[in-house]
Design goal:
259 residues, alpha/beta
Length: 259
């Protein structure tokens, strides 16, 4: 049966961030993810996880100035020193939260910089991150993101991500397969899951086109989840969606998967 993790950056926004852990546990989730933990002490987040018997399954490495529109540093020339500092900070949190996966965002393509240059910077930074993450028993992962939600993002397709992972080594770097982004950019999500399954370390889900909870859009989610389970995926599926209304009112889709 699929294992779903509540995304606390997007779900349970009815209460402050640190109070969302308890609501997620009460709703039946065993795992949680979020975008960034850095505004809160790691010890405080770790306490919320322990108090609610939750597992931290994923968060993002620092992605630059997110409020000003930056969306990662890994492929951006001139940011290498800041990138290395960001990995150190992220791994401090990952260790404190016993989190086994770290999402590393590529960033927005700067104007006038050749694609090959960005690819070279991206590869070198990811190779560094992979080595540092391995020392902490953390798996770094990369995620293709559609151009509608983040125009200009460097990494867009599952095949592009697979090629980068092959260059670094799949034992060192994994794929974060977001079914929402894949449906928008590529479609045929079940076949793409099947193709890239050996590389997938984590999945995420939201319905299209609105990025709301499963069952609010165009995808046949019971079929998709059943097929993913049959293919043998045993990782976590993060619920990175914006509830169409109040979070708990939109969780009827989740009821069949509560353990």
């Amino acid at each position: 049966m699929p294992r779903f993790a509540a995304n606390l950056s997007m779900m349970f926004n009815e209460v402050p961030f640190l109070d969302r852990f308890a609501l997620a546990a009460k709703a039946g989730f065993k795992g949680v993810e979020f975008l960034f933990p850095y505004e809160h002490p790691a010890a405080e987040i770790a306490a919320r996880l322990k108090d609610n018997d939750l597992q931290q399954v994923l968060f993002n490495a620092p992605a630059g100035d997110f409020a000003k529109g930056e969306r990662g540093m890994a492929a951006i020339p001139g940011k290498q020193a800041a990138f290395r500092d960001s990995i150190k900070l992220a791994l401090d949190y990952a260790t404190a939260l016993a989190c086994p996966r770290l999402h590393i965002m590529a960033g927005l393509k700067p104007e006038g910089v050749a694609h090959d240059t960005l690819t070279a910077v991206y590869g070198a930074n990811l190779a560094y991150a992979a080595e540092e993450c391995a020392k902490a028993s953390v798996k770094p992962i990369i995620e293709p993101i559609n151009q509608r939600d983040i125009p200009g993002f460097f990494l867009n397709t599952t095949d592009q991500a697979a090629a980068i992972i092959a260059a670094i080594g799949p034992e060192k770097l994994g794929l974060q397969f977001d079914l929402y982004h894949c449906q928008i950019t590529e479609g045929d999500v079940v076949k793409r899951v099947e193709k890239h399954l050996p590389l997938i370390a984590h999945m995420q889900v939201a319905d299209t086109p609105g990025r709301n909870e499963p069952g609010t859009g165009e995808v046949n989610w019971p079929f998709v989840f059943k097929t993913i389970d049959a293919l043998g995926f045993r990782g976590w599926i993060g619920c990175e969606y914006r509830p169409a209304g109040e979070t708990l009112a939109g969780l009827s889709w989740f009821a069949p998967y509560i353990e």
